[in-house]
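Project standup — Tuesday

K.O.: blocked on the structure for the chain from last sprint. Re-posting the sequence here as requested.
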Amino acid sequence: MCVAERSRRRPAKQQVLWQFLLETLSNPAYNPVYIEWLDRQRGVFRFVQSQQVARLWGLRRKRRNMCYEYFSRAMRSAVDFLVVVVIIIIVIFVYLRLSNATIHTAAQLT
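H.V.: unblocked you, prediction finished:
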């Protein structure tokens, strides 16, 4: 393969942590053995065997030395990112809702 052919290839899209967790929770081979839903409607789950879930994540990421400490760090980073995204979405929603309410009220007055 020449350099030009290599540069045209797209890198494989890696799965993000939340997709892996959702897939693992949906797989009857792993749910409820390694991970299980506590409240599926609210998105609350728990690790039954956290070391095994970390090992599965390591296999997915092609990192054979993945341990629970690395996995938990990835979880904290993912949660911090999701919290920031959710807060931004809520702020935008509240802003849009308030601005629409103001426009709607002004339209009613005329």
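K.O.: great, moving the ticket to review. The chain has one domain: 3-82. Helices lie at 3-8, 17-26, 50-60, 68-109.
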